[in-house]
Amino acid sequence: MKTKTIILIAIVIANISGFAQETKSNKVSGGLGYFMIGYTGMELGNMNSLFKENGYPELSNSSFTFGGGGHFVFKNFIIGGEGHGISGGSSSNAKYDIKLGGGYGFFNLGYILYHNPTVNVYPLLGFGGGGSTIGITDKSKNPENFNDLLENPARESYITNGGFMLNFSLGADFFVLASKSENGSGGWIMGIKAGYVYNASGNDWYFNNKETAGSPDAGISGPYLRLTIGGGGMGK
């Protein structure tokens, strides 16, 4: 799945690059800021297999993401950043509750392949970090009163995963409700970003800051699709 996704993204970027080379595109400068919401896939299959074997509910392999970012442009070169939270949702059965959450942030570099007064198209490469936490609650040990809680506090366990991450994406920003001319555009934008987040540090899991031996190869690496809304301007 991971290899196929990366190949697909590379093919899309290559096709747009070829299109851009055949299309007249002037050097532009400016800046944009935006809010983002979207969907991300996660590589949790191995974790869910262990959950299922041991009587735990399985987590969804997809999640809602929310965040924001922005970038500056100088003669088509892009520098910027973004950050996202992951609302991984929860699952439960008669005995256990499981919840997943996390997030990541990136410093981005890119280049505008195509520009006209209506749209910018560009790839981005991001360097950053992030992580996720899975909380497991044993519902059979819910305390009757506060003294029960103090006498037997071991009802929840949290495992964490994270480290250095890479972000490969392709974005398009469309100027809407904006002033447009041959020299530039400014105002509100809406856009779309598609890409892949990769945990370059590996998918080892930790409990109480100590690596758990034999932990499954699973984590928040995966493809994503996001919608953006914001504002800014671009000009020659």
Q: Keywords for this structure?
A:
236 residues; alpha+beta; Porin; eight-stranded antiparallel beta barrel; 3 helices
CATH class category name:
Mainly Beta
What structural class do helix, strand and pairing data support?
alpha+beta
Q: What Rg, in angstroms, do the CA atoms define?
A: 22 Å
How do the strands line up in the largest sheet? 1-2-3-4-6-7-8-11
What general form does the structure show?
elongated
What pattern of helices and strands is seen along the backbone?
HEHEEEEEHEEEEE
Residues in helices, as a percent range: 10-25%
Explain what the structure shows.
By secondary structure, the protein is an alpha+beta fold. The chain has a single domain, classed as Beta Barrel (Porin). It has three helices and eleven strands. 15% of the residues lie in helices and 59% in strands. The protein has an eight-stranded antiparallel β-barrel with strand order 1-2-3-4-6-7-8-11.
What is this structure's SSE topology?
Elements: H1 2-22, E1 29-41, H2 45-53, E2 62-74, E3 77-92, E4 96-111, E5 114-115, E6 119-138, H3 146-151, E7 156-181, E8 184-199, E9 206-207, E10 210-211, E11 222-235
Antiparallel strand pairs: 1-2, 1-11, 2-3, 3-4, 4-6, 5-6, 6-7, 7-8, 7-9, 8-11, 9-10
